[in-house]
Amino acid sequence: MNKDQVKGVGEQIKGKVNETVGKATNNPGKELKGDLQQAAGKVQKAYGDAKEAAKDNAKHKAP
What we know:
- By secondary structure, the chain is mainly alpha-helical.
- The chain has one domain.
- The protein has 2 helices and no strands.
- Helix 1 runs antiparallel to helix 2.
- The longest helix has 34 residues.
- Belongs to the UPF0337 (CsbD) family.
- This is CsbD family protein.
């Protein structure tokens, strides 16, 4: 697991918290912020996943 994967998951969690707080307090801005954080976290985690896959692939193809 690399730092992009960890940060991505962390951002998703923060986003879910913000979304939940926004819904509970009827604050659409906070809810939207949470949705955006979750989306950004998913992108960052996917980037980290791709980096890990490339690293693993390079290891297995090395002579």
